[in-house]
Design brief:
The protein is built from seven helices and 14 strands. By secondary structure, the protein is α/β, with parallel strands linked by helices. The chain has a single domain, classed as Metallo-beta-lactamase, Chain A, CATH 3.60.15. A hairpin with a 7-residue loop joins strand 7 and strand 8. Helix 1 runs parallel beside helix 3. The longest helix is centred in the C-terminal third of the chain and has 12 residues. The protein is globular, with a radius of gyration of 16 Å. The relative contact order is 0.14.
């Protein structure tokens, strides 16, 4: 089960619950704001959130993490290069948002690591590093559900900005070619800020 909640006022951001229908355990992907609202929704549904996974650590994707953890304690995971972002309000852009945001006790996952539920080890997400928008950007891919949570790597009819600290346009396009366009064409792309799209649709758009 994939359920999207859009949070935040200044920059509306998509948070995704990826939940195993059998066990009702799962992951929360990004918590950009309104952590209490995200936690209340999970509790109302009877879901157990085993891990909070971050596609990257800009403030509009981590701003609700600390509040969420106050209601539902769970481990937080991000890419290996994430500390420069989550520990520095200049890099995570939260000073631009008006209030400094930092995280602590964030664990890391490696490129190509498989993240599995403790309650059901067959329910997994594969990590694919996709630097370019940030140096810590990544994608979470589920082959069984034909789904990829792509953060700000790629959107419906657009790609992530590269004019922030750590951004690199060439690196982003290389990441998209390597990590997105190699997925099966029917893979649904769930991004941080737009409606869903597919690999096939975006490949057609950019390869005309």
């Amino acid at each position: 089960m994939i359920e999207c909640m859009t949070v935040g006022d200044m920059i509306p951001t998509n948070s995704f619950f990826y939940i195993d229908d059998e066990t009702k355990h799962g992951f929360l992907i990004d918590a950009g704001a309104e952590g209490g609202r995200l936690a209340a929704h999970a509790k109302e549904k009877g879901w157990t959130i085993e891990r909070l996974l971050l596609t990257h650590c800009h403030f509009d994707h981590i701003g609700g993490v600390n509040d969420f953890l106050r209601h539902i304690p769970c481990p937080v995971y991000a890419a290996e290069d994430s500390p420069r972002y989550y520990a520095d309000p200049r890099w995570n852009l939260s000073l631009w948002g008006g209030e400094a945001v930092t995280l602590s006790d964030v664990k890391t996952f490696a490129d190509r690591e498989t993240i599995a539920l403790a309650a059901n080890p067959k329910f997994t997400l594969d990590v694919r590093y996709s630097p370019g928008h940030t140096t810590d950007s990544c994608i979470f891919y589920s082959a069984s559900d034909h789904a990829a949570f792509v953060g700000d790597t790629i959107f419906f009819a657009s790609i992530g900005r590269t004019d922030f600290p750590g951004g690199n346009t060439q690196e982003l396009w290389e990441s998209i070619a390597r990590e997105v366009f190699t997925l099966p064409p029917d893979t649904v792309l769930y991004s941080g800020h737009t409606e869903e799209t597919t690999v096939a649709a975006e490949m057609a758009r950019y390869r005309r």
